[in-house]
Amino acid sequence: MADLSLKPDVIVVGGGIIGLSAAWQLHRDGIDVVVLDPAPGTGASHAAAGMLAPIHEAYWGETHILGLNLAASQAWPAFADALGVDVVDYRRNGMLMAAYDADDKALLDNLGDLHEQEGLPVERLRSRECRSREPLLAPGVRGGVYSPLDHQVNPRRVVAELLSRVPTIPVSATQVARNQVATDDGRVMACQQVVVAAGAWTGRLLGVPIRPIKGQILRLNGPEGLLRLPVRGVVRGSSVYAVPRSDGEIVVGATQEEQGFDTRVTAGGVYELLRDVLALLPGLSEIDLEETWAGLRPGAPDNAPIIGTGDDGIVYATGHYRNGILTAPITATAVAALVQGRQPPVDLSPFSPGRFGAEPIGDPPNTEHLSGVTA
Ligand code: FAD
Ligand code: GLY
Please, is 216 exposed, middle or buried when counting C-beta atoms within 10 Å of its C-beta (0-12, 13-18, 19+)? Predict the structure, then answer.
């Protein structure tokens, strides 16, 4: 734990995977950094399945997000190597998307057209080919798409490893400015640069339209290797996925709900996930249901993250929505570049904090009482 009396170069507000990865990159660059979070690692990053899936998360009309996600995927091997590939259970075994019925197959074919248009390396598979890749699939599946570029990691292990490498202080930021943070224990901390990575809660600190998008998710446990591959299914129009870890855990997710800051697990949410995943992978019905959970994805109106320096001088790293695990390493490199005045690894203009217009959404942050403190 860091000493509050010391003045760090950089304060990162928010200790989810985004804030911790950014802090770790800054630390590796020789910068004195501290992360403020009353409960680090307990937000969306604790819920996440850990798919690193630029292709299976590609949607029509979001090609700028696809570009970022593809670059993010390429940043993962070095990031995982530095943390320990086995420690974080980083696995590059591709991902299968399978259609349950004929209508679902039409939806997949439509996505296949997008893959083709973008020149993405996917294989379209018939039913039998799907089942030879993943024998647990129901015999009736109509076909699928295999993507060798979509990988996976255990996000809880990533966060635990990052937490062992960067200093954190268990306080909440109540107000932020470029070089000062007021905390809920009545202190004001000064630094050279503030980075805000407060996930779904960012809109409470800064005038950006980030909202929480709830995801309920399950953890099953069975024999190791029961499920060979991560499988994403389209089942009667709904999306469901099952991601196997090397220790036998299988993560089944996830709902997508606009419920504000509610993180209750509901009977209906669990029912829908089990109904759809067991239709697709009936062999999972006999294994243990070990955990039900819900987390809040940080979402912007255009589904793209917010990464950049705002007019307020604060560095923003938020809004990573469905792909914050995938994009953590590249966001970390981008944040470190912004803080140090270097060229970011990708064009950040589509992700700028100012793209929603000059008018802040909601109440602007009150920074009046911070003005007397200098870094
Ligand atoms: P969080 O992990 O939510 O962290 C934000 C942190 O900020 C929290 O620890 C919170 O305590 C802290 N905080 C908030 N306010 C303050 C404050 N005022 N002061 C100090 N600290 C504060 N992404 C993928 O890439 N692949 C997946 O397979 C995947 N699956 C998902 C499944 C589910 C069910 C969900 C919910 C999300 C999934 N995601 C996935 C998305 C991913 O989890 C998020 O995009 C990512 O975790 C966001 O990270 P974050 O650090 O921004 O937010
Ligand atoms: N990326 C998977 C999810 O957000 O549920």
Answer: buried
**Side by side, which strands form the sheet with 188-190?**
173-177, 180-183, 188-190
What ligand 1 atom has the least distance to the C-alpha of 46? 2
Please work out whether the CB of residue 39 comes within 6 Å of at least one atom of ligand 1: yes
| 176 close to 230: Cβ distance less than 8 angstroms | no
Pocket of ligand 2 from Cβ distances under 6 Å:
49, 51, 57, 215, 253-254, 297, 322
Q: Give dist(CA 80, CA 345) in Å, integer.
A: 18
Q: Which atom of ligand 2 is nearest to the CA of 53?
A: 1
Residue 47 has a CB neighbour count (10 Å cut-off) of: 22
Q: What pTM value is reported for the model? A: 0.94
At residue 33, the 3 state secondary structure works out as strand
Mean pLDDT, all residues of the chain:
93
Q: Is the pLDDT of residue 225 over 90?
A: yes
Pocket perturbation via mutation, ligand 2, pick of 56, 69, 322, 325 by most ligand atoms within 8 A of CB? 322
Task: Output the CA 49–ligand 2 centroid distance in Å.
Answer: 7
17/332 Cα distance (integer angstroms):
10
DSSP track, 327-361: THHHHHHHHHHHHHTPPPSS--GGG-GGGG-SSPS
> Rounded mean pLDDT of 168-185?
97
pLDDT digits (tens, 9 = 90+) for 309-349: 999 999 999 999 999 999 999 999 999 999 999 999 999 99
Kindly report the protein residue whose alpha carbon is nearest to atom 41 of ligand 1.
322
pLDDT digits (tens, 9 = 90+) for 180-192: 999 999 999 999 9
Residue nearest to atom 44 of ligand 1 (CA): 324
